[in-house]
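User: New here, please read:
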Amino acid sequence: MGNKEAKFWADSIADECIQRAEDDPKLKEIVKKKGYICYDEKTPSGRIHVGSGRGWIIHDAIAKALRDKGVKARFILSSDDMDPLDKMPNYLDREKYGKFMGVPFRDIPSPAGKGTFAKHYFFECTALFDEFGIEAELESTGQRYVDGDFNWAIRKVLDNADKIKEIFENLYDQPYDKLPFNVRCPECGKISTTKVLEWDPDKEQVKFRCEKEMVDWAEGCGHEGWISPYDGNGKLPWKVEWAAKWPVVGVVCELAGKDHFTKGGSRTVSIQISDKVFDFPPPYPSTRKNIGKGYEFFTVGGKKMSTSKGHGIGFADIKDFIPPNLMRYLLVATRPRAMIDFNPEGKNDVVLLFERYDRTERIYYGKETVSNESEDMQHKRIYELSHVGKIRDSMPVQIPFSFAAVIMQVTLDADKAVEKLREMGHIGSKASGEDIYHVKDRLEYAHRWVKELAPEGFRFEFNEDIPEDLELSEEQLSALHALKDALKLKRWKEDELYEEFYNICENCGVKPGKFFQAAYRVLIGREKGPRLASFILTLGQEDVAELLEKL
């Protein structure tokens, strides 16, 4: 298989970004001054759902891949805090926040009582970036307006309003009867209710009116006047602003969700404005002529998540159920154009994710081999780009997540579980303090998951007495008595006990399936359960033998 076919997705994008800069003199100059900027943005309109993390980790992985190729690369995440409150999240006090409809998020008070709405929700997530291994420079779009970074772009847009009008009307086949700028009303503070009526290029001022019925979800105050469009007095409309950000910031790579990349969507408008107004090459994956493709949705239980509506698990909450490094692994291991539907509740998605991660880790450290060289490379690259912190020289101790869930239901305590794992040989005598920390972390996640989110089949209670409705064949009963005797005979190791099960089945004339079924019925009142050998050793040979004695 050729190198091109085997290349990991983040490395392929990094190579294309480097090639673009080599081929385009304008990009080449920007990269020389600022490095390769991978850019993303988020409107802090409320609790930010975990789906937004997909874009952040995609851009972070691309920036890391670029740095691995020896070039300077940065991931910048901007808070679009000049955007207005246009939908009321269902968890906000409508009476308190209703008056702020149409006001920029940076000017709305925080629900926590200190600071702004924008900072509260933006930093609720970004404060966790270290835990997810995300290296990002954080900035405020509103502050860029205030600092004057957009001034030249605003002038360019207003001077070329006819071109922008033509772009919109050609794409949407309807009149575009406004100048492309939104003033922040100096009287009422709203930015959604203002309409720019005139641009005076000599005075560099716009005439505007704050209209009472501009939108049906906010009411303007009626104020009218002239004002400079610069230094934070307003903002460009979203699709125009997106195009302006690319030359203002110097963006080389910016992906977004596929909904932005539909025909006639926001990316279509923005690349035309970038080309025809700013004469700037749109960032990867777009060109001056083609919009490219965005990344697929990240859904939970098949439902696309919404920040303003409060749907889905919050980015700040997901770490309560899945370790941040596992969530990063999921997002790095999945190609951006592949959809992710993940449900930590009521299904075995969490167990499968841990199993996938553990396999990738074993392949990285050479503890498991794959026949395909390309697959081997992919796993190793996934591990490198998804790992949080410094990669260790030796493989960490691995405790299968499903087994961690079992042992925590027996011991109910991570320290006791660690001791039991030592007794069973799952943690060696040379395990480091770091190993024990990671084992306990997994044990605690498993305990939380099995208590709050796991399917019923993962939960059990150990029977202290024989179930009254138990019915067993003579062969099954004989086999369980033989198991009792074996447990009393010696201290078993897991693999030895597993082999002994089949000796018992052969000696007692019972099929293995019937033997396991009988054992689970006695132990937990079900026909299926955890791996029997490790389960018995976790419960304790003596306790299991004592229960079997009652048969």
Observations:
- The CA atoms of residues 147 and 449 lie 47 Å apart.
- The radius of gyration is 30 Å.
